[in-house]
Amino acid sequence: MLTTIFWVLVVPAALAGLLSNRTGRRFLEYVEWRLSDPPECHTPAASVIVPVKGVDHELHRNLRSLVDQDYPDFELIIVTRSASDEAVRVAQSMLGATTRIVIAGDPPDGTGEKVHNLLVAVGEARPESEVLIFADSDGQVESNWLRVLIGPLKDESLGATTGFRWYFPEEGRFWPLMRSVWDSTIAGNLRDDDKNFAWGGGTAILKKTFEQANVAKFWQGTISDDYRLTAAMNAAGLGIRFEPGAMVATTGACERSEFLDWAVRQLIITRVYRPRLWLAGFVAHIIYCGAIIVSLLLIATGNVLGLGGLVVSIVPGMGKGAVRGTAARLMFPSRTEWLDRFGWAYFWYTPIATWIWLYVFARSALTRTIEWRGNVYTLVSAEKTQCLSLAVATAIAVPLISS
């Protein structure tokens, strides 16, 4: 019986591992290809919109990297719910001719605070700007970031361009490194065929495309700016191009509970906005982890078949992790010293990350309620969100997921 279960689980796990390695190699080749060409010379006027709430780690440096962009004509809009937010004080220290602060006020019921801030800021963008760029406040970018994101938009078959985040915890340590390894899995699955999702921390879109695709309508009743912007591009039949040169470096550490709660929140949002993707990922990790368990059981009985099953279940994932580490060196040449110290984690931590993925998937199946930067939401559907007060939310029987 155990041998039968072994074949049922290990064979698909091994095949999936081989396919995953092929995807990883394709990702690396795409990164090498895109980075080999300089940014395209297409520099229309742009508005960069950054929602803020609270003081993120190295917020001043993060915002400074946006202020100091090597781009001929852009404005930086820092938008927040309240003028009393501590982030406003940091932002004011770098106000210049091209930087301004927008106070969005309280969001309407049923719409997330970040999405509301973005909508208000889009309405405040200067008329001459042809491109809208959405960025997060917790990341640092290179000086050519805007050029890399905006250049490809001269291709009218594209709806948007996007980068993604990569965590670089300065002092290493297990849980901060695990967050980097865990999250790099998502980056490593970005594609070379313009069928990606528009990550909210680094996306560029033509203003006319934003309007024609009715992105503002897609944002109504939601907390997820990126999944719903992606849905708008898909509905309009427009591609989303991943640009490896537009990756964003996020620094700072985290504790175990902070990382796990954050990861669960990511997958709760995915479960609501991309249920098929969530289900496929959950099933895949059940198979992976099940194959490891049955292989260990066979080893315990003295059956050498289990050793082979363990190898084919674990090693391909470790190999793909190493490939992601190599890609990181290409995408972040200024982080070479950090990668020299901690790049080994993408190989050795991958088996553990697989089990964390399973744990996070399981927790994300239990609730649709999340806490995000002090706000509590129940995600009724992709088009409907219920905003709860923190006092009401803590009375809910299912434990909340904190940000």
Description:
This protein has 403 residues and is an alpha/beta fold. It has two domains: 129 residues, no CATH class; 218 residues, Alpha-Beta Complex (Spore Coat Polysaccharide Biosynthesis Protein SpsA, Chain A). It has 16 helices and twelve strands. A seven-stranded mixed sheet has the order 3-2-1-4-7-5-8, sandwiched between helices. The protein is globular.
> Could you say what the CATH topology of the largest domain is called?
Spore Coat Polysaccharide Biosynthesis Protein SpsA, Chain A
CATH superfamily of the largest domain: Spore Coat Polysaccharide Biosynthesis Protein SpsA, Chain A
Question: Which structural class matches the secondary elements?
Answer: alpha/beta
Secondary-structure element sequence?
A: HEHEHEHEHEEHEHHHEEHHHHHHEEEH
Instruction: Going across the biggest sheet, name each strand in turn.
Output: 3-2-1-4-7-5-8
Q: Largest sheet, if any?
A: 7 strands, mixed
The percent range for strand residues is 15-25%
How confident overall, as mean pLDDT?
93
CATH architecture of the largest domain: Alpha-Beta Complex
- What count of structural domains? 2
Distance between the termini: 43 Å
